[in-house]
Design brief:
With 128 residues, the protein is mainly β. 4% of the residues lie in helices and 48% in strands. It has one helix at 105-109, and strands at residues 3-7, 10-13, 18-25, 33-39, 46-51, 58-60, 68-73, 78-83, 92-99, 117-118, 122-127. The strands form two sheets. Strands 2, 4, 5, 6, 9, 10 and 11 form a seven-stranded mixed β-sheet that branches. Strands 1-3-8-7 form a four-stranded antiparallel β-sheet, with no helix packed on it. It is globular and about 40 Å long. It starts with a strand and ends with a strand. 34% of the residues are buried.
Length: 128
């Protein structure tokens, strides 16, 4: 059984930081592109950042560039999202997703290719 389990969400003030983790099990880590996505109340889910499985290149949506950093620990099958200088508009439930079919990471980030597996999410709240 494939499982993606997110953790690390919480309540922070604007300009604060959080580090999210996504632990994957039941899959071969190297066979998937792993990304972070978020969904705010009343809005559609959107891509935040993803990692290319082939070379580890990172991709970000424009609004988080320079503030968020995605990384991985392959030995622990864990993907991280370091979020700095958080803004109220970053508040959402954050999900990690895993894509099996090799594809353009931009397509994953834009959700043109939807992940095969999703975690249950971790909530991030940012107060101004």
């Amino acid at each position: 059984e494939v499982r993606l389990v997110e953790s690390g969400g919480g309540q922070v003030q604007a300009r604060g930081s959080l580090r999210l983790s996504c632990v994957a099990s039941g899959l071969v880590f190297y066979d998937y592109d792993i990304g972070w996505f978020r969904q705010a109340p009343g809005k559609e889910r959107e891509g935040v950042s993803c990692l290319d499985r082939s070379d580890g290149t990172t991709y970000y949506r424009d609004s988080v560039k320079g503030r968020f950093t995605i990384s991985k620990d392959s030995a622990r099958q864990t993907v991280f999202l370091q979020m700095n200088n958080l803004r109220p508009e970053d508040a959402a439930v954050y999900y990690c997703g895993a894509v099996a079919r090799p594809t353009n990471p931009w397509a994953v980030l834009r959700l043109w290719v939807r992940p095969d597996y999703w975690g249950r999410g971790t909530r991030v709240a940012v107060s101004s």
